[in-house]
Amino acid sequence: MGNEASVAVPEVKPVETFRDDFTFANSPKAIRRFPFPFTEDSYMYSVNIEPHNGGPAGSPYAPAFDIDEHYLSEVEERRKVLAEDPSRCTVLEHMMPAQWDTLELLMESLSTDYPDYFVLTRDGDQWTWENRLLGIKDTFTFGDPDTLPYEPFEYITRQVQGDFTLHDQRDNMLYMDGGMLTCQADWSLQFDLGMNFYEWHGPVPRAHEMGVFERALKYLLNLRVGEPVRRLNWTMTVHPRMDTSPENYHKWGIDRATVTPENVGDYAHLRVELQSLYRLPRSNAVLFSIRCYLISLNELVTIPKWAKRMHRVIKTLPEDLADYKGFIGYRPMVVDYLAPFDDGAELTPGAAPE
Amino acid sequence: MILSQQAKIPVRVTGVERVTPSIKTFTFEREDSAPLPSFSGGSHIVVEMRGGERTYRNPYSLMSPPEDYPSAYQISVRCDDQGRGGAQYMHERVREGDEMTISGPANLFPLTVTAPRHVLIAGGIGITPFLAQLHELRQRGLAYELHYQYRDAEGAAFRDRLAARFGDQTRFYESGRDQYVDPTAILADQPLGTHAYVCGPAGLTQAVHEAAAELGWPARNVHSEEFAAPPPGKPFKVVLERSQREVEVPANASALEAIEEAGIQPSCSCRGGSCGQCEQTVLEGDIDHNDHFLSDEAKARNSSMMICVSRARSDRVVLDL
Predict the structure, then answer these.
(1) Are residues B257 and B201 in the same domain?
(2) What tens digit of pLDDT does each residue of A149-198 get?
(3) Does residue B171 sit in the same domain as residue B265?
């Protein structure tokens, strides 16, 4: 987990949009700290799980839960999605202890990593939570849902960037028994709710045959309190659109047909999820944090090493993976756009900008 | 895949109580009196025992109530003739005031909280995880019943405490007076969706599983936890193919312990053959399986082993490690 010394205080921008006029953009600083996922010139699935125990100061890996310049924008986007569709946050009844576990973990982590922005004061079960970025100060009784304006899981995840799911562990299996999903890469909580680990991963190509999920599940069933793990996942999205849900497919699916060689650098975005998993202590549930980062190709090519590597990865990606990730239609345009940036030079290992 | 090593928590022994002639209860608190991690009923910790002829690391169920921010953890350890070195160490060497190291809690024996009714069956020292789970069942308002079998009144650890707190939901059986748990009778009339949990001697565990299967219970509604002791055996050699190392496993240590002694840290968690974390691919050798993780078919295939408890029948084993 992060600590004060290694987590930089982020400057938070005023609200930008992830819909309609799409005013979202990354500052040069945000570009440099982008969690670029490709450490090699080609990509294939693996059980790429590592301990989530910090990272270089200022990087998204340093804190437990990363807060960045887009904080206000993402909180506002979540509010809009929930106003249109409250079912995006659903938690099954038996998960109430896991809800409190989540609230505690997030409040403790945020107030430790960002003491200028978040303050948690505890007096027995009387807790006071101050979120200075949103101007919130609430006193409540830990363990009593009636003392909060929302149920504890929704209350706290409305104040954090990224999606979250809650997984009950029973009969040597994980079940998706709750979540807050407003910035997901084309999957639905209402569809997956109650499914087991193999069922909700059903659509992923190749990985089942490779035994990836069997190994990953065994590993996660043994996840210990205080020893979180993380991995990166990625896809591509047209426009900086956070809410690419199946529920709203009619609003964004068509975007993929609007990409042209002229606009691809502006339209096409690499979408990276920094996923972290925590064992929750009282409930024995697993909290899955899916923190989403977006970067346009125009922004990405300002880092020469990333431009070259991205070109090689996208060019050599197997057809079924490009199809599953939803960009097979405009992949040639992405490759053509990136090609001039790639001189074929050998790249240093790892994903760092250089 | 990079795997994390277990977090270690330095603690002080703040209580040693002999609860029966063969069972002692140990209380651990943090040096700085800070709270220990919260945990769920059924969790265990691994206790590290140093300073003897060798280091023991044994899993023990947490028996203290799973309350918020516990100031202390409690475990109980039984020592008998077949007791492994660790139990003997705990009984003979550990005194109040000693400093020890424990792992954080992990749960391989969780309650299925979606079930409407829970039947707990304990034999002897197997009562410990249920002591914690009973609190959780009560807190969640779930229906439950406990069946606890022990040899005689003198060995009936925590009987009075259980009778006082959970008396109306509890039945006691004294095997020394020919009172035995009858799994078939207990399970026969349970409502659909009931889950059963058993912790105790291997014979009792097997009897419960068999009775449930006979009555048509789904296998996943029956849970058991049994930590295997790493049994001593004849020495053998482990060849670590990828590390290009050879390690001698002596008669009184496990393969995992010998490999750790050699400075290599394979992934592992419970150290009792239950969690599956230390599974290694066997490239060559004949394995004597002692774990509760691999299926009988997997054991027969001889293609992997749990290095925490299993040994070799052959003089030499080659692992993909």
Answers:
(1) no
(2) 999 999 999 999 999 999 999 988 999 999 999 999 999 999 999 999 99
(3) no
CB contact under 8 A, B7 and A283: no
Nearest chain A Cα distance for residue B304, angstroms: 14
The number of domains in chain B is: 3
Residue A250, CA distances (Å) to A116, A246, A331 in order: 41, 8, 21
Same structural domain, B19 and B67: yes
Give the contacts of B175 (CB within 8 A, at least 6 positions apart).
B149, B150, B151, B152
- Within this chain, do residues B212 and B123 fall inside the same structural domain, yes or no? yes
3-state DSSP call for residue B240?
strand
Local mean pLDDT, 10-residue blocks, chain B (321 residues)? 59 96 95 90 93 82 90 92 75 95 92 96 96 94 96 91 92 95 96 96 95 96 85 91 93 90 86 86 93 86 92 94 91
pLDDT for the residue B84: 57
A94 touches chain B (CB under 8 A): yes
Structural domain boundaries enclosing B13: 8-105
Q: Is A122 on the interface with B (CB under 8 A)?
A: no
Share of chain A above pLDDT 70, in %: 97
Contact state of A49 with B2 under an 8 Å Cβ cutoff: yes
Chain A closest CA to B155's CA: distance in Å? Answer: 31
B210 is a domain residue: yes
- Does the distance separating the beta carbons of B276 and A226 come in below 8 Å? no
Q: Which residues of B touch A222 (CB under 8 A)?
A: 106, 269, 275-277
Q: A7: pLDDT confidence band, cut at 50, 70 and 90?
A: confident
CATH at residue B146:
3.40.50.80
Chain B residues whose beta carbon lies within 8 Å of the beta carbon of residue A229: 4
A77-87 per-position pLDDT tens digit: 999 999 999 99
- Does a structural domain hold residue B187? yes
B93 and B129 belong to one structural domain: no
Residue B3 is assigned to a structural domain of this protein:
no
| A167-206 residues touching B, CB cutoff 8 A | 168-172
CB contact under 8 A, B4 and A229: yes
Of B65, B82, B105, which one is at a domain's C-terminal end?
B105
Residues of B in contact with A279 (CB under 8 A): 106
Which SS3 state, helix, strand or coil, does residue A145 take? helix
Residues of A designated catalytic: 231
Q: Specify the CATH number for the domain of residue B15.
A: 2.40.30.10
Instruction: Count how many pairs of residues, chain A against chain B, have C-beta atoms within 8 Å.
Output: 79
The CATH number covering residue B249 comes to: 3.10.20.30
B107 contacts A281? CB cut-off 8 A: no
Distance of alpha carbon A236 from alpha carbon A227, whole angstroms: 30
User: Are both B121 and B220 inside the same structural domain?
Assistant: yes
Q: Assess if residue B1 is contained within a domain.
A: no
Helix axes A331-338, A304-316, angle to 10 degrees: 140
User: Which of B8, B107, B224, B269 to probe the A interface (max A CBs under 10 A)?
Assistant: B107
Q: List the beta strands (DSSP E) in chain A.
A: 50-51, 89-91, 118-123, 126-131, 136-141, 163-170, 173-180, 229-238, 268-279, 286-296
Q: What SS3 state is found at B150?
A: strand
- Domain spans of chain A, in order of start: 28-341
Chain position carrying tokens 């002596």 = B250
B38: nearest CB among A51, A171, A281: A281
Judge if B100 and B12 occupy the same domain. Answer: yes
State ipTM: 0.82
Listed residue (A173, A153, A161) closest to A95, CA to CA: A153
Contacts of A49 in chain B (CB under 8 A): 1-2
Q: How many residues does chain B have?
A: 321
